[in-house]
Amino acid sequence: MKYVFFIISLVSVFLSKAQWHSTYKDKQDSLKKYYVAPNKLPFKINSYLPDDDEVLSEYFKTYITHFNYYPVITFNETYRELKNAGFLMQLYFPQVAEILKQENVPSELAFLPYAASLYNPLFVNKDNRVGAWGLQYIVAKKYNLNITEYIDERKDIALSTKAAALYLKDIYKKHKSWDLTVLEFLSSAAIVEKAKIKAKSDKIDDFYEYLPLYLRHEYRQFFEAVYYFGSVSFSSYPVYQNADTVEVKNKLSFSIVGKHLFVTDKFLNAHNPLYWQRVIPADSLHHYPLVLPENKVNLFTKKEKELYRLQQIADSIKARKVRKVTLQIPQNGEPITYKVQSGDNLGYIAQKFGVRVSELQAWNNIKGHLINVGQELVIYTNKKTSSEKETEQKNTGSKSKFQTVEPAKLPKEKTNAQKTVYTVKSGDSLWLIAKKFNVSVDEIMQWNKKTSERLDIGDKLIIYKP
Question: Does domain 29-134+156-233 have CATH number 1.10.530?
Fold first, then answer.
Protein backbone atom coordinates (compact mmCIF):
# COMPACT_ATOMS: atom_id res chain seq x y z
CA MET A 1 0.00 0.00 0.00
CA LYS A 2 2.86 2.35 0.85
CA TYR A 3 4.49 1.73 -2.54
CA VAL A 4 1.23 2.47 -4.35
CA PHE A 5 0.82 5.76 -2.49
CA PHE A 6 4.44 6.69 -3.26
CA ILE A 7 3.98 5.99 -6.99
CA ILE A 8 0.73 7.97 -7.11
CA SER A 9 2.47 10.93 -5.46
CA LEU A 10 5.29 10.90 -8.00
CA VAL A 11 2.87 10.69 -10.93
CA SER A 12 0.83 13.56 -9.44
CA VAL A 13 3.90 15.78 -9.15
CA PHE A 14 5.00 14.96 -12.69
CA LEU A 15 1.58 15.74 -14.15
CA SER A 16 1.32 18.96 -12.14
CA LYS A 17 4.66 20.23 -13.42
CA ALA A 18 3.78 19.21 -16.98
CA GLN A 19 0.48 21.07 -16.70
CA TRP A 20 2.30 24.11 -15.31
CA HIS A 21 4.75 24.38 -18.22
CA SER A 22 2.12 23.69 -20.88
CA THR A 23 -0.09 26.38 -19.39
CA TYR A 24 2.47 29.17 -18.99
CA LYS A 25 5.35 28.59 -21.37
CA ASP A 26 3.80 30.63 -24.19
CA LYS A 27 2.57 33.53 -22.07
CA GLN A 28 4.24 36.89 -22.66
CA ASP A 29 4.15 37.57 -18.92
CA SER A 30 4.85 33.98 -17.91
CA LEU A 31 4.38 34.56 -14.18
CA LYS A 32 1.17 36.55 -14.41
CA LYS A 33 -0.91 33.80 -12.80
CA TYR A 34 1.91 32.19 -10.87
CA TYR A 35 1.19 34.18 -7.73
CA VAL A 36 -2.15 32.90 -6.54
CA ALA A 37 -3.55 31.77 -3.23
CA PRO A 38 -1.58 28.77 -1.84
CA ASN A 39 -4.55 26.43 -2.15
CA LYS A 40 -4.85 27.28 -5.86
CA LEU A 41 -1.26 26.61 -6.88
CA PRO A 42 -0.80 24.29 -9.88
CA PHE A 43 1.07 21.85 -7.59
CA LYS A 44 1.64 21.54 -3.86
CA ILE A 45 4.93 23.14 -2.95
CA ASN A 46 5.55 20.91 0.06
CA SER A 47 4.56 17.67 -1.65
CA TYR A 48 8.11 16.74 -2.53
CA LEU A 49 11.72 17.61 -1.77
CA PRO A 50 14.19 17.35 -4.66
CA ASP A 51 16.96 15.61 -2.72
CA ASP A 52 18.30 14.25 -5.97
CA ASP A 53 19.01 17.77 -7.16
CA GLU A 54 22.65 18.46 -6.27
CA VAL A 55 22.22 22.20 -6.68
CA LEU A 56 19.30 22.60 -4.28
CA SER A 57 19.45 19.70 -1.84
CA GLU A 58 22.07 21.25 0.46
CA TYR A 59 20.04 24.44 0.78
CA PHE A 60 16.81 22.61 1.53
CA LYS A 61 18.46 20.43 4.18
CA THR A 62 19.76 23.62 5.80
CA TYR A 63 16.31 25.18 5.54
CA ILE A 64 14.63 22.20 7.22
CA THR A 65 17.27 22.28 9.98
CA HIS A 66 16.39 25.92 10.74
CA PHE A 67 12.64 25.87 10.33
CA ASN A 68 11.78 22.20 11.02
CA TYR A 69 9.43 21.85 8.05
CA TYR A 70 9.42 21.95 4.31
CA PRO A 71 9.41 25.43 2.77
CA VAL A 72 6.02 26.95 2.07
CA ILE A 73 5.51 30.42 0.61
CA THR A 74 4.11 32.76 3.28
CA PHE A 75 2.59 35.30 0.85
CA ASN A 76 3.32 38.26 3.13
CA GLU A 77 3.55 40.48 0.06
CA THR A 78 0.50 41.73 -1.78
CA TYR A 79 -0.63 40.10 -5.02
CA ARG A 80 0.43 43.19 -6.96
CA GLU A 81 3.96 43.17 -5.47
CA LEU A 82 4.40 39.47 -6.19
CA LYS A 83 3.10 39.85 -9.73
CA ASN A 84 5.58 42.67 -10.31
CA ALA A 85 8.39 40.57 -8.78
CA GLY A 86 7.57 37.82 -11.26
CA PHE A 87 7.88 40.22 -14.18
CA LEU A 88 11.17 41.62 -12.85
CA MET A 89 12.64 38.16 -12.25
CA GLN A 90 11.67 37.15 -15.75
CA LEU A 91 13.50 40.25 -16.99
CA TYR A 92 16.65 40.15 -14.85
CA PHE A 93 17.16 36.64 -13.42
CA PRO A 94 19.01 35.07 -16.41
CA GLN A 95 21.45 37.99 -16.53
CA VAL A 96 22.05 37.88 -12.76
CA ALA A 97 22.62 34.12 -12.75
CA GLU A 98 25.07 34.37 -15.65
CA ILE A 99 27.14 37.11 -13.94
CA LEU A 100 27.30 35.11 -10.69
CA LYS A 101 28.44 32.08 -12.67
CA GLN A 102 31.21 34.14 -14.29
CA GLU A 103 32.32 35.32 -10.84
CA ASN A 104 32.33 31.74 -9.47
CA VAL A 105 29.50 32.46 -7.03
CA PRO A 106 26.78 29.78 -6.53
CA SER A 107 23.97 30.47 -8.98
CA GLU A 108 21.40 29.87 -6.20
CA LEU A 109 22.41 33.25 -4.80
CA ALA A 110 20.66 34.79 -7.79
CA PHE A 111 17.56 34.48 -5.59
CA LEU A 112 19.01 36.86 -2.98
CA PRO A 113 17.60 39.99 -4.72
CA TYR A 114 14.14 38.48 -4.25
CA ALA A 115 14.69 38.40 -0.49
CA ALA A 116 16.34 41.83 -0.43
CA SER A 117 13.95 43.79 -2.65
CA LEU A 118 11.57 41.49 -4.55
CA TYR A 119 13.98 41.99 -7.44
CA ASN A 120 13.10 45.68 -7.67
CA PRO A 121 16.07 47.72 -9.05
CA LEU A 122 14.40 50.95 -7.84
CA PHE A 123 14.18 49.66 -4.26
CA VAL A 124 15.15 52.04 -1.42
CA ASN A 125 14.50 51.30 2.26
CA LYS A 126 14.78 53.29 5.49
CA ASP A 127 18.36 52.06 6.03
CA ASN A 128 19.28 53.51 2.62
CA ARG A 129 19.80 50.13 1.03
CA VAL A 130 19.31 50.67 -2.68
CA GLY A 131 18.71 48.56 -5.77
CA ALA A 132 17.72 44.96 -6.36
CA TRP A 133 20.58 43.74 -4.15
CA GLY A 134 19.86 46.29 -1.41
CA LEU A 135 23.46 47.54 -1.32
CA GLN A 136 24.50 50.11 1.26
CA TYR A 137 26.37 53.25 0.19
CA ILE A 138 29.65 52.21 1.84
CA VAL A 139 29.54 48.80 0.13
CA ALA A 140 28.77 50.38 -3.25
CA LYS A 141 31.71 52.78 -2.99
CA LYS A 142 34.03 49.97 -1.85
CA TYR A 143 33.28 48.04 -5.04
CA ASN A 144 33.54 51.12 -7.29
CA LEU A 145 29.90 51.81 -8.05
CA ASN A 146 29.21 55.38 -9.16
CA ILE A 147 26.63 57.40 -7.21
CA THR A 148 25.90 60.98 -8.28
CA GLU A 149 23.07 63.49 -8.41
CA TYR A 150 21.63 61.83 -11.52
CA ILE A 151 22.77 58.21 -11.52
CA ASP A 152 23.04 55.45 -8.93
CA GLU A 153 24.76 52.33 -10.25
CA ARG A 154 23.28 50.31 -7.40
CA LYS A 155 20.10 50.41 -9.50
CA ASP A 156 21.84 48.99 -12.55
CA ILE A 157 21.33 45.22 -12.58
CA ALA A 158 24.60 44.25 -14.28
CA LEU A 159 26.87 46.63 -12.37
CA SER A 160 25.25 46.00 -8.98
CA THR A 161 25.34 42.22 -9.52
CA LYS A 162 29.09 42.34 -10.21
CA ALA A 163 29.60 44.39 -7.04
CA ALA A 164 27.36 42.04 -5.04
CA ALA A 165 29.28 39.01 -6.32
CA LEU A 166 32.60 40.49 -5.16
CA TYR A 167 31.04 41.39 -1.80
CA LEU A 168 29.63 37.87 -1.37
CA LYS A 169 33.00 36.31 -2.15
CA ASP A 170 34.75 38.55 0.39
CA ILE A 171 32.22 37.62 3.09
CA TYR A 172 32.57 33.92 2.25
CA LYS A 173 36.36 34.11 2.65
CA LYS A 174 35.75 35.22 6.23
CA HIS A 175 33.06 32.70 7.23
CA LYS A 176 33.67 29.73 4.90
CA SER A 177 29.88 29.25 5.03
CA TRP A 178 27.29 30.38 2.53
CA ASP A 179 24.61 30.44 5.23
CA LEU A 180 26.55 33.01 7.26
CA THR A 181 27.45 34.82 4.04
CA VAL A 182 23.78 35.26 3.16
CA LEU A 183 22.94 36.49 6.67
CA GLU A 184 25.73 39.06 6.70
CA PHE A 185 24.92 40.20 3.17
CA LEU A 186 21.29 40.86 4.12
CA SER A 187 22.27 42.75 7.26
CA SER A 188 25.79 43.51 8.45
CA ALA A 189 28.74 41.87 10.20
CA ALA A 190 27.85 43.70 13.42
CA ILE A 191 24.30 42.30 13.55
CA VAL A 192 25.48 38.72 12.99
CA GLU A 193 28.24 39.05 15.60
CA LYS A 194 25.80 40.52 18.11
CA ALA A 195 23.53 37.48 17.71
CA LYS A 196 26.51 35.16 18.18
CA ILE A 197 27.51 36.93 21.38
CA LYS A 198 23.99 36.71 22.80
CA ALA A 199 23.77 33.00 21.99
CA LYS A 200 27.38 32.37 23.09
CA SER A 201 27.77 30.23 19.99
CA ASP A 202 28.98 30.51 16.40
CA LYS A 203 26.48 27.95 15.15
CA ILE A 204 23.60 29.38 13.17
CA ASP A 205 21.16 26.94 14.78
CA ASP A 206 21.99 28.45 18.17
CA PHE A 207 22.04 32.16 17.38
CA TYR A 208 19.28 32.24 14.73
CA GLU A 209 16.58 33.23 17.25
CA TYR A 210 18.67 36.24 18.32
CA LEU A 211 18.68 37.72 14.83
CA PRO A 212 16.35 40.70 14.11
CA LEU A 213 12.89 39.74 12.90
CA TYR A 214 13.31 41.44 9.50
CA LEU A 215 16.53 39.50 8.88
CA ARG A 216 14.91 36.18 9.74
CA HIS A 217 12.08 37.07 7.37
CA GLU A 218 14.46 37.90 4.50
CA TYR A 219 16.58 34.80 5.21
CA ARG A 220 13.48 32.67 5.06
CA GLN A 221 12.34 34.41 1.90
CA PHE A 222 15.63 33.49 0.24
CA PHE A 223 15.10 29.77 0.85
CA GLU A 224 11.47 29.99 -0.17
CA ALA A 225 12.48 31.67 -3.44
CA VAL A 226 15.11 29.01 -4.15
CA TYR A 227 12.57 26.28 -3.56
CA TYR A 228 9.60 27.96 -5.19
CA PHE A 229 11.34 29.26 -8.33
CA GLY A 230 13.96 26.53 -8.52
CA SER A 231 11.87 24.46 -10.91
CA VAL A 232 11.09 27.46 -13.15
CA SER A 233 13.49 28.20 -16.00
CA PHE A 234 13.17 31.95 -16.48
CA SER A 235 15.48 31.84 -19.48
CA SER A 236 13.04 29.55 -21.28
CA TYR A 237 10.37 32.24 -21.34
CA PRO A 238 10.39 35.14 -23.80
CA VAL A 239 11.47 38.48 -22.36
CA TYR A 240 8.66 41.02 -21.95
CA GLN A 241 9.80 42.90 -25.04
CA ASN A 242 12.90 42.65 -27.21
CA ALA A 243 15.29 45.45 -26.35
CA ASP A 244 18.50 47.00 -27.60
CA THR A 245 20.92 49.64 -26.32
CA VAL A 246 21.77 53.01 -27.86
CA GLU A 247 24.42 55.55 -26.87
CA VAL A 248 23.21 58.92 -25.57
CA LYS A 249 25.66 61.78 -26.16
CA ASN A 250 23.77 64.72 -24.64
CA LYS A 251 21.39 65.27 -21.76
CA LEU A 252 18.06 63.55 -22.38
CA SER A 253 15.03 62.96 -20.15
CA PHE A 254 12.69 59.98 -20.16
CA SER A 255 9.76 62.32 -20.83
CA ILE A 256 11.27 63.53 -24.12
CA VAL A 257 12.20 59.98 -25.17
CA GLY A 258 8.81 58.57 -24.29
CA LYS A 259 6.83 61.35 -25.96
CA HIS A 260 8.73 61.47 -29.26
CA LEU A 261 9.73 57.81 -29.65
CA PHE A 262 6.41 56.46 -28.32
CA VAL A 263 7.99 54.35 -25.55
CA THR A 264 6.02 53.65 -22.36
CA ASP A 265 7.17 54.79 -18.93
CA LYS A 266 6.94 51.19 -17.74
CA PHE A 267 9.51 50.06 -20.31
CA LEU A 268 11.91 52.96 -19.70
CA ASN A 269 11.75 52.58 -15.92
CA ALA A 270 12.16 48.79 -15.97
CA HIS A 271 15.05 48.71 -18.44
CA ASN A 272 16.88 51.87 -17.32
CA PRO A 273 16.77 51.91 -13.50
CA LEU A 274 20.26 53.44 -13.40
CA TYR A 275 18.83 56.93 -13.98
CA TRP A 276 16.97 57.50 -10.73
CA GLN A 277 15.89 61.03 -11.69
CA ARG A 278 14.68 59.82 -15.10
CA VAL A 279 17.33 62.01 -16.74
CA ILE A 280 20.39 60.77 -18.65
CA PRO A 281 23.17 63.24 -17.72
CA ALA A 282 25.26 62.75 -20.87
CA ASP A 283 27.54 65.37 -22.40
CA SER A 284 30.34 65.53 -24.95
CA LEU A 285 32.77 63.83 -22.55
CA HIS A 286 30.42 61.34 -20.89
CA HIS A 287 28.16 59.10 -22.97
CA TYR A 288 25.57 56.83 -21.33
CA PRO A 289 23.58 53.80 -22.50
CA LEU A 290 19.82 53.84 -22.97
CA VAL A 291 17.80 50.66 -23.42
CA LEU A 292 14.96 50.98 -25.93
CA PRO A 293 12.54 48.56 -27.59
CA GLU A 294 14.32 46.93 -30.49
CA ASN A 295 11.92 48.44 -33.01
CA LYS A 296 12.64 51.99 -31.75
CA VAL A 297 16.42 51.97 -32.26
CA ASN A 298 16.28 53.15 -35.88
CA LEU A 299 13.79 55.87 -34.94
CA PHE A 300 16.17 57.08 -32.21
CA THR A 301 19.03 57.23 -34.72
CA LYS A 302 16.93 59.34 -37.11
CA LYS A 303 15.63 61.70 -34.41
CA GLU A 304 18.70 61.82 -32.15
CA LYS A 305 19.72 65.43 -32.89
CA GLU A 306 16.11 66.59 -32.75
CA LEU A 307 15.67 64.93 -29.34
CA TYR A 308 18.70 66.80 -27.96
CA ARG A 309 17.32 70.09 -29.34
CA LEU A 310 13.90 69.45 -27.80
CA GLN A 311 15.57 68.72 -24.47
CA GLN A 312 17.44 72.04 -24.57
CA ILE A 313 14.20 73.90 -25.29
CA ALA A 314 12.44 72.10 -22.42
CA ASP A 315 15.29 72.94 -20.04
CA SER A 316 15.28 76.63 -20.99
CA ILE A 317 11.51 76.88 -20.47
CA LYS A 318 11.80 75.15 -17.10
CA ALA A 319 14.64 77.50 -16.07
CA ARG A 320 12.52 80.55 -16.83
CA LYS A 321 9.62 79.16 -14.81
CA VAL A 322 11.64 78.35 -11.72
CA ARG A 323 13.78 81.50 -11.76
CA LYS A 324 12.88 83.49 -8.67
CA VAL A 325 14.04 86.77 -7.13
CA THR A 326 16.53 86.12 -4.35
CA LEU A 327 15.06 87.77 -1.29
CA GLN A 328 16.57 88.34 2.13
CA ILE A 329 14.36 88.01 5.17
CA PRO A 330 15.48 90.41 7.92
CA GLN A 331 17.60 88.59 10.52
CA ASN A 332 15.34 89.68 13.35
CA GLY A 333 12.24 89.81 11.19
CA GLU A 334 9.13 88.10 12.48
CA PRO A 335 6.38 87.12 10.06
CA ILE A 336 3.23 89.24 10.40
CA THR A 337 -0.13 88.49 8.87
CA TYR A 338 -1.79 91.51 7.28
CA LYS A 339 -5.41 91.43 6.15
CA VAL A 340 -6.04 93.37 2.93
CA GLN A 341 -8.58 96.16 3.37
CA SER A 342 -10.63 98.19 0.93
CA GLY A 343 -8.45 100.64 -0.98
CA ASP A 344 -5.23 98.64 -0.40
CA ASN A 345 -2.75 97.80 -3.13
CA LEU A 346 0.65 96.17 -3.08
CA GLY A 347 2.50 99.49 -3.43
CA TYR A 348 0.75 101.02 -0.41
CA ILE A 349 1.23 97.87 1.73
CA ALA A 350 4.92 97.68 0.75
CA GLN A 351 5.47 101.33 1.74
CA LYS A 352 3.52 100.88 4.97
CA PHE A 353 5.76 98.03 6.14
CA GLY A 354 9.02 99.24 4.62
CA VAL A 355 9.43 96.37 2.14
CA ARG A 356 9.46 96.00 -1.65
CA VAL A 357 6.55 94.96 -3.84
CA SER A 358 8.66 92.10 -5.28
CA GLU A 359 9.18 90.79 -1.75
CA LEU A 360 5.45 90.79 -1.03
CA GLN A 361 4.83 88.93 -4.27
CA ALA A 362 7.48 86.30 -3.51
CA TRP A 363 6.49 85.76 0.15
CA ASN A 364 2.86 85.27 -0.82
CA ASN A 365 3.25 83.61 -4.23
CA ILE A 366 1.50 86.51 -5.99
CA LYS A 367 2.28 86.52 -9.72
CA GLY A 368 0.62 89.83 -10.65
CA HIS A 369 -0.53 92.88 -8.70
CA LEU A 370 -4.09 91.81 -7.97
CA ILE A 371 -5.06 91.36 -4.32
CA ASN A 372 -8.51 90.94 -2.78
CA VAL A 373 -10.16 92.51 0.25
CA GLY A 374 -9.85 90.07 3.16
CA GLN A 375 -6.82 88.32 1.69
CA GLU A 376 -4.13 87.60 4.28
CA LEU A 377 -0.53 88.46 3.41
CA VAL A 378 2.58 87.23 5.19
CA ILE A 379 5.10 90.04 5.66
CA TYR A 380 8.61 89.91 7.14
CA THR A 381 9.68 93.28 8.53
CA ASN A 382 11.52 94.90 11.40
CA LYS A 383 9.47 98.06 10.99
CA LYS A 384 6.67 98.56 13.48
CA THR A 385 3.38 100.04 12.41
CA SER A 386 1.82 102.94 14.29
CA SER A 387 -0.79 100.62 15.83
CA GLU A 388 1.97 98.26 17.02
CA LYS A 389 3.84 101.21 18.54
CA GLU A 390 0.71 102.28 20.42
CA THR A 391 0.13 98.73 21.67
CA GLU A 392 3.74 98.47 22.80
CA GLN A 393 3.50 101.79 24.61
CA LYS A 394 0.30 100.71 26.39
CA ASN A 395 1.84 97.38 27.41
CA THR A 396 4.97 99.14 28.67
CA GLY A 397 2.90 101.68 30.57
CA SER A 398 0.86 99.01 32.34
CA LYS A 399 4.00 97.64 33.97
CA SER A 400 4.45 100.71 36.18
CA LYS A 401 1.85 103.18 37.43
CA PHE A 402 4.50 105.91 37.64
CA GLN A 403 5.36 105.61 33.95
CA THR A 404 3.71 108.10 31.61
CA VAL A 405 2.95 107.55 27.98
CA GLU A 406 3.55 110.40 25.59
CA PRO A 407 0.79 110.89 23.03
CA ALA A 408 1.67 110.26 19.42
CA LYS A 409 3.19 113.38 17.98
CA LEU A 410 1.63 114.98 14.96
CA PRO A 411 4.05 115.74 12.17
CA LYS A 412 5.52 119.18 12.42
CA GLU A 413 3.79 121.67 10.17
CA LYS A 414 6.40 123.56 8.23
CA THR A 415 6.02 127.33 7.99
CA ASN A 416 5.89 127.09 4.23
CA ALA A 417 3.41 124.16 4.23
CA GLN A 418 0.24 124.88 2.30
CA LYS A 419 -3.04 123.45 3.57
CA THR A 420 -5.09 121.73 0.91
CA VAL A 421 -8.45 119.98 0.99
CA TYR A 422 -8.56 117.03 -1.35
CA THR A 423 -11.79 115.28 -2.44
CA VAL A 424 -11.47 111.49 -2.80
CA LYS A 425 -12.30 110.21 -6.29
CA SER A 426 -13.02 106.79 -7.74
CA GLY A 427 -9.88 104.58 -7.76
CA ASP A 428 -8.09 106.61 -5.10
CA SER A 429 -6.19 105.07 -2.20
CA LEU A 430 -4.23 106.65 0.61
CA TRP A 431 -1.00 105.44 -0.93
CA LEU A 432 -1.80 107.05 -4.32
CA ILE A 433 -2.88 110.33 -2.67
CA ALA A 434 0.24 110.37 -0.44
CA LYS A 435 2.43 109.79 -3.49
CA LYS A 436 0.61 112.54 -5.41
CA PHE A 437 1.27 115.13 -2.70
CA ASN A 438 4.74 113.82 -1.73
CA VAL A 439 3.73 113.03 1.85
CA SER A 440 3.38 109.79 3.83
CA VAL A 441 0.25 107.72 4.46
CA ASP A 442 0.73 108.06 8.23
CA GLU A 443 0.76 111.86 7.92
CA ILE A 444 -2.54 111.91 5.99
CA MET A 445 -4.13 109.61 8.57
CA GLN A 446 -2.96 111.77 11.49
CA TRP A 447 -3.96 115.05 9.87
CA ASN A 448 -7.46 113.66 9.32
CA LYS A 449 -7.64 111.63 12.56
CA LYS A 450 -8.31 108.43 10.63
CA THR A 451 -7.95 105.03 12.33
CA SER A 452 -8.54 103.05 9.16
CA GLU A 453 -7.23 103.24 5.60
CA ARG A 454 -10.80 103.01 4.29
CA LEU A 455 -11.81 105.77 1.87
CA ASP A 456 -15.17 106.61 0.35
CA ILE A 457 -15.75 108.60 -2.80
CA GLY A 458 -16.40 112.26 -1.83
CA ASP A 459 -14.42 112.18 1.44
CA LYS A 460 -12.58 115.44 2.21
CA LEU A 461 -8.94 115.05 3.27
CA ILE A 462 -6.77 117.79 4.76
CA ILE A 463 -3.26 117.69 3.36
CA TYR A 464 -0.31 119.94 4.13
CA LYS A 465 1.72 120.23 0.96
CA PRO A 466 5.45 120.71 1.67
Answer: yes
